[in-house]
Amino acid sequence: MDIIESLPGIFYVLDPDGRFLLWNSRFLQVSGYGAAEVERLHALDLFRGADRDRVARRIRDTFETGTGDVEAELVGKSGKPTPFHFTGQLVDFSGEQCLVGLGVDVSDRKRAEDFLRESEARYRSFIENTTEGVYSFELEGPVPIELPVDEQVRRIYRSRIVACNDALAQMCGYEEAGDLVGVTMQELHGGSDIPENLALLEEWVARGYHVAGAESLEIDRDGNARWFANNCLGMVEDGCLVRGWGARVDITHRKVTEQRLRLSASVFENIADGIFITDADSSIVDVNQAFVEITGFAREDVIGRDPRMLQAGRHDDSFFRELQRTLGVKGQWRGEIWYRRKDGEVFPVLLTINRVLGDDGGTTHYVFAATDISQIKQSEERLDFLAHHDPLTGLPNRALLNERLEWAMQHVRRQSRSFAVVFIDLDHFKHVNDSLGHPAGDRVLQDVGQRLVGVLRQDDTVARLGGDEFVLLLEDIAHPDKAAKVAAKVMRALAEPFEVEGRDIRVQASMGICMYPGDGDDAATLLRNADAAMFRAKDRGRNTYEFYTEELTRKAFERVLLESNLRLAVEREELFLNYQPQIELATGRVVGMEALIRWNHPELGLLSPTRFIPLAEDSGLIHAIGEWVLREACRQARAWCEAGLEFGRLGVNVSRAQLQRGRLFEDIQSALAASGLPPERLELEVTESFIMEQDTLAVEQLDRLRDCGVSIAIDDFGTGYSSLSYLKRLPVHKLKIDKSFVLDIADDDNDMAIVAAVISMGRKLGLTVLAEGVESARQADFLLENGCHEAQGFLYARPMPHEAVTAFLREQAPKGDSDSDQ
Ligand SMILES: Nc1nc2c(ncn2[C@@H]2O[C@H](COP(=O)(O)O[C@H]3[C@@H](O)[C@H](n4cnc5c(=O)[nH]c(N)nc54)O[C@@H]3COP(=O)(O)O)[C@@H](O)[C@H]2O)c(=O)[nH]1
Prior knowledge:
alpha+beta; Beta-Lactamase; 5 domains; eight-stranded mixed barrel; binds ligand LFPHGCPZ
């Protein structure tokens, strides 16, 4: 009995019916039953559910086989289950085969097992659900740790994965964990020849089979390079490495991003473009070194500032509105812009602006990449200059001349103006080259170019076509004579010797002039015709100019000659005045006399004012001539007055230049004073076209003259575009209907209507109306019938010298009215 009581668990003996024959006190304690109750119990009463079935089977088996064991929860009287491990054995008990059993409380072991199971489940769940790849590997055989590292590594490569999770399988290019089990480390690492990888293993061995966070580069089964961060621990037993555990994370994406970032950072710092980044509020957050070098601004000068600080102010608002619009729509803008460096220098930039979007699709930043294109621009300009200029003289070449000719033609067409092309070829320039050498010749050509430039206005062009050929493009030349004048100026400019290498060199030129429009419709034709004209100038003895048409040449020479002669005409007393009477239509009385200038040219004979007055106006000689006319006319009129000859008023023509100069009033006062002619006797004739220009200074002078008694007549009336309201405000006394209307009044209904209307209008304005150019009685009758006051024309008298006029007046005067002649 003592043995039974000293047993470590519950002891019992069951008969073949499963009834308890014997038990120890521990049995009573555990089951909670008393001895009497146990006697009535069946063994299976102590078990529940599945345990009960299993225990029943096991008891049966034991009675059949002689031994058996089972684990089940014993449920005591209190109902509390306690896990037991039961072992049974058949024993002859008083001649009956009975089951002797021993039950050991395995609560503690069960608890430990449960804990282990749960812990393992947790661990497994963690391993299986973690994104880290986890594995363990076994070496083929123990690897002594004192082996050389390379030998150890060789053996480690042969070790095999024994367990791993799906995450590892997938990150190594396998489908699931099972696919990886049995794979060697060498296969896992994609080979043994990746230096980074080998270095990692060597380091693992060297560090006592432990690394944390070590990076390896491997090639997966698809041949892709992949980066991993590894933790790995080796197990050493008896001085040998036997197995190991590892965990790894795929850091390929991070590595690629890092590489890209490193690359970007390196590009940002090393690129030649100035890069600056702003936040969404246009505040600069970063700049690179190139930006600092290009703009001269230090980083701290610009951080936090608006990029507008860089603008040079060369673009208008619409430029920036369009930039913002494009950036808003496309997220990018690219174009040229002018920036200002810190030192104030303005420079051109090729700018690209890119918008950077955040995860929410909103703008986070703008990246500006600015390429300084000053050099490119300068090169472009230089190339453009070289393409359009003659390298020797720096003057425009044929290409640029053609462009300018095209432009001038368009411009002139629109504005109904004209321009001239002058082709210049230096005479015998070959001699300069032959005698002094080409370098000296080049110097002369350069100096010739400069002199030509000096002769012209800024708007004109001097081009060199090559050799000794130059072309002038004279813009806005109203008359061919102006071109001739420029040609004459060129000749004078070239006549001065050129000093080269201490020697005076004389250069002459032949020039051909053609006009647009008229002498050609395109650049090539104009140049060809000017060239042809130049050859004619050569034929005519060189050092001269010729127009493309002979007629123009003749006229140009004549005008130049006349202009120089006209300067002397006043002193030489070659000018004189004729006078033409003006008649009152109703009475036939002489009521006026118009002074008309003539020039008695020593070679050309008597010249009409139409030939020399425009020249005088152009050259400024009109002032001297106009003054002379006034003095002479007043003197003559005073003489007629003194002779008692009635001539009414004396009309004197004044040109626009005289009025514009602003000294006419003084000149007239002085002529009147010098002659003693009363102002009421003087009438100034001013053209309609000029009076309608409403020149304030001119009108002021006319006002003053009217105030002191001088009359004003509007000459050539009908040829301009008079405004009646303006006419009413002018100090005018008389309208002179232009002879072009009078000429045809007998035959032309239109002219008749115009003349009648002008007479009527003049009368309504209270003006005296005079018809010019009356040559026939029919014209005179028509004028009289339509109320015209006065007439002037060959019908009554031609313009006459003063002696003839004196005789005419004497004839007209009632007998005894006059007594002298001048
Ligand atoms: N600034 C100055 N201009 C002057 C001066 N002297 C004249 N002129 C202007 O010159 C233009 C031409 O003048 P002219 O050649 O003298 O011609 C005048 C007459 O000869 C001409 N005329 C007169 N009657 C007739 C005629 O019946 N038929 C016809 N075909 N011609 C005729 O008309 C001219 C006078 O014109 P106007 O002066 O408009 O009255 C001329 O514009 C003069 O103005 C001067 O000293 N200074």
